[in-house]
Amino acid sequence: MTTKEEEPESFGFRQEVISSLLQRRFQYQTKLRDDGLKAATEYLRCITKEIIKRSVEEALRESCNSVQVKHIEKVFPEWLLDH
């Protein structure tokens, strides 16, 4: 039996993609150091993982075999309220 800390991570984001998205979002030219970019990338990965987990739980409550957009739409506002 494995604990959550021992589970292998099956997804992630490429830092180049996150950097590009952040650069497009800021009105002025903004520099993001490597440690800041790593932190932002990890934060987005954690958010995504939590929303996926909650969406799967919601789908199971509704006896669905797959996660649908409606499940994500339902759990995302709840996640925002939690954070």
Automatic annotation (TrEMBL):
<dbReference type="GO" id="GO:0071821">
    <property type="term" value="C:FANCM-MHF complex"/>
</dbReference>
<comment type="similarity">
    <text>Belongs to the CENP-X/MHF2 family.</text>
</comment>
<dbReference type="InterPro" id="IPR018552">
    <property type="entry name" value="CENP-X"/>
</dbReference>
<dbReference type="GO" id="GO:0051382">
    <property type="term" value="P:kinetochore assembly"/>
</dbReference>
<keyword id="KW-0234">DNA repair</keyword>
<keyword id="KW-0227">DNA damage</keyword>
<dbReference type="GO" id="GO:0006281">
    <property type="term" value="P:DNA repair"/>
</dbReference>
<dbReference type="GO" id="GO:0031297">
    <property type="term" value="P:replication fork processing"/>
</dbReference>
<dbReference type="GO" id="GO:0000712">
    <property type="term" value="P:resolution of meiotic recombination intermediates"/>
</dbReference>
<dbReference type="Pfam" id="PF09415">
    <property type="entry name" value="CENP-X"/>
</dbReference>
<protein>
    <recommendedName>
        <fullName>Centromere protein X</fullName>
    </recommendedName>
</protein>
<keyword id="KW-0539">Nucleus</keyword>
<dbReference type="GO" id="GO:0003677">
    <property type="term" value="F:DNA binding"/>
</dbReference>
<keyword id="KW-0238">DNA-binding</keyword>
